[in-house]
Design brief:
This protein is α+β, with helices and mostly antiparallel strands. It folds into five domains: 124 residues, no CATH class; 108 residues, no CATH class; 44 residues, no CATH class; 173 residues, no CATH class; 85 residues, no CATH class. Helix content is 31%, strand content 18%. Strands 18-19-20-21-23-22 form a six-stranded antiparallel beta barrel. A four-stranded antiparallel sheet has the order 24-27-26-25. The longest helix has 21 residues.
Length: 654
């Protein structure tokens, strides 16, 4: 099959006849599999797979992590026939020149592979983009090439970068730079590197205007115009909406007045209000296609198709959701939270845009999503506590920036070991404390980078003071026992039996022992160890003097796995559903006495329903009591139902 295609002779035939000369042939063979060849897609896939695997072996691509579940994929790029996007990742310790060097090597290696299989990169169609952001000094991040001024490591550094692509029998050619606020057509879409969809909306408006002009110049009946509108115009406009990350505000303005001018062509008076244009015909509306609705349907379809799958796209979606979860500071799926309260805390992204649509349009997504278990009794996420205290808007965002910088999710991540106090050094940046000297991170979760302002730190300190009382930052609601593994990297431990303290650095462990002349809670540096002691408990140390540390507080032993049946009795009841049944539950003591009463035979259980048609004709009530005749402990509850069908039978059923 390939040999005839390779040696094919191409003649030119016109109205004046057929040319005597030709191109191609045995002396000038043409590569490729020809358009329409049924074997071409499979062959392209085989060749591309070999090239991609070679790029992987050479260490190219970007590594995508899920920051909570700790899954990862290595992605070289995105390929579709002759459209290729090569990716190169910026490591945690990489700078701009380092990643640029890796990117150039990746381009060169890919171009050499293309040449080896008979292809080549076209310099005129190749562009490069560096996704590099810097702090704007106000707590936010902006793309470096969109800043007004040049910093030492900012736009000026980007201007000096050049990238080249290899060519056949010629020197490498330099390619143009695509700025993050510019868009070129890729796979039929005009997507900017910074995620803005404005350029794509311009193309949509232009297509609608062109279609409207063609319809006005024609003589199609209204019925045919509607058919063209539905099956021709919008069939094309829908393409690519699934990748749109625009907000609902941007979507509402996306079409501008383009759809207004096509109304008369559809037989609709232009003076009709906007709401009637998009209302379904079954409700008396015109049922025009709404950009917000169509985009929501497309993004939902894309999300549900790929979420939960063990593919590159599936894991990338999970990573985006988990980063969104950590960024807003919650313990469960972000889609379960009110967008108006929490949405401004998140960076603009595709999943944030989907979250806004789901929340605003009242769509419920039932996802298999693993929440982060609450580490301690009486614990909560820091941001949930702040929202409960009434923080909103800019103040909430300031608190969130500091929280991310502190690598903290739960209140237990910033408290002393006994769970009673906020650690004083966490009122400032943790990196500048002893904890910062001991390791690069203080959390097992992978937080994004933040740059809080001085004003942010002031608001953070005030918020911690509201969460506590007194100069020692005593928590208003102290934490209890550990019930799940802590996401915090605890570095200070104590062995009660050996009376040995430990400071666990990333690369070593320091042991401290009690000197006979010192008090029991004063420990003196003894040695460096490569291993940590078992059976230790987390503690909070306080610096003393001359290599001495003081035990400030002791905590319960950390748990390595989620403890089963650690929920309270009331939480367990609520987890079974019907929370309304337990609102009036009266429980004076821990219900463990019920087990003892059952074993002793002293437990008495009474229940009854009640309906008084004269006093409350629409209410059925019920009550029950568990009582131990030995200890006089009681557990009791009453609840009612309001219904026009209320009667004694329904009361007994309750």
């Amino acid at each position: 099959m390939l040999r005839p295609l390779h040696f094919m002779e191409f003649y030119l035939r016109t109205g004046f006849g057929q040319s005597a000369s030709f191109c191609g042939g045995a002396t000038e063979g043409k590569h490729g599999l020809s358009q329409g060849n049924g074997a071409a897609p499979a062959t392209w896939q085989q060749i591309s797979t070999l090239m991609i695997n070679a790029q992987h072996r050479q260490g190219h691509g970007v590594k995508i992590y899920t920051p909570i579940s700790r899954q990862s994929i290595q992605q070289v790029g995105i390929l579709y026939v002759d459209d290729t996007n090569l990716l190169e990742g910026l490591g945690e310790k990489d700078d701009v020149p380092t990643v640029a060097d890796k990117g150039q090597k990746g381009i060169t290696n890919w171009g050499d592979k293309l040449i080896a299989v008979g292809g080549a990169l076209n310099p005129d169609k190749c562009k490069w983009t560096l996704h590099h952001m810097e702090s704007d000094g106000k707590g936010s991040w902006v793309y470096t090439d969109q800043t007004t001024g040049n910093s030492d490591d900012g736009e000026g550094e980007l201007e000096e970068l050049t990238f080249t692509v290899p060519r056949v029998n010629a020197e490498a050619a330099q390619i143009d730079r695509l700025r993050t606020n510019e868009a070129v057509e890729n796979l039929g879409l005009y997507a900017r590197p910074d995620g803005s969809s404005e350029r794509h909306f311009e193309e949509i408006r232009e297509k609608i205007t062109t279609w409207t002009s063609h319809i006005q110049n024609g003589v199609l009946p209204t019925r045919s115009v509607w058919m063209s509108y539905t099956h021709q115009l919008w069939a094309g406009l829908r393409y690519g909406l699934g990748a749109c990350s625009a907000s609902m505000t941007a979507l509402s303005k996306g079409l501008g007045s383009a759809d207004y001018y096509l109304l008369s062509n559809l037989g609709v008076v232009r003076s009709i209000t906007r709401e009637w244009r998009y209302l379904p015909a079954s409700f008396g509306g015109m049922e025009l296609f709404d950009l917000t609705t169509e985009t929501t349907a497309a993004t939902l379809n894309s999300f549900l198709q790929h979420y939960g799958s063990n593919t590159n796209i599936g894991i990338t979606l999970l990573a985006a959701l988990e980063y969104l979860q950590l960024e807003i500071g919650v313990d469960d799926c972000p889609f379960h939270y009110d967008f108006d309260t929490w949405g401004h805390l998140a960076t603009d992204s595709w999943v944030k845009a989907l979250w806004e649509k789901v929340d605003k349009l009242g769509i419920t997504l039932l996802l298999e999503y693993t929440s982060i278990p609450i580490p301690r009794e009486n614990d909560n996420t820091i941001m949930s506590a702040m929202v409960t205290m009434g923080y909103r808007g800019k103040e909430l965002k300031s608190i969130n920036r500091v929280r991310i910088a502190q690598e903290a999710l739960f209140v237990s991540d910033i408290t002393t070991a006994n769970g009673k106090y906020i650690e004083a050094h966490l009122q400032s940046w943790w990196v500048e404390s002893l904890e910062g000297d001991m390791g690069e991170h203080r959390s097992k979760l992978q937080f994004s980078r933040e740059d809080p302002t001085a004003a942010d730190w002031k608001i953070w300190k005030k918020a911690l003071q509201r969460l506590t009382s007194g100069p020692n930052l005593l928590l208003n609601n102290p934490l209890g026992k550990w019930r799940a593994p802590s996401p915090r990297i605890w570095r200070q431990f104590y062995h009660p039996e050996l009376n040995i303290g430990e400071l666990r650095y990333d690369d070593r462990t320091l042991h401290f022992e009690n000197h006979p002349d010192d008090r029991a809670h004063i420990l003196t540096y003894a040695r460096v160890s490569d291993t940590a002691l078992p059976e230790t408990i987390p503690v909070t140390f306080e610096d003393e003097y001359e290599n001495k540390i003081k035990i400030k507080s002791r905590g319960p032993k950390l748990v390595e796995s989620i403890q089963q049946n650690t929920s309270s009795f009331l939480e367990l009841l609520k987890s079974k559903g019907g929370e309304w049944m337990w609102k009036e539950l009266i429980m004076e003591d821990d219900p463990d006495w019920i087990v003892e009463a059952l074993e002793r035979g002293s437990l008495h259980c009474v229940t009854d329903g009640s309906h008084n048609p004269k006093l409350a004709p629409h209410i059925s009530g019920a009550a029950w009591v568990l009582r131990c005749s030995h200890s006089n402990n009681e557990l009791k509850e009453n609840f009612s139902e309001q219904s026009s069908m209320a009667d004694s039978y329904r009361a007994e059923q309750l």
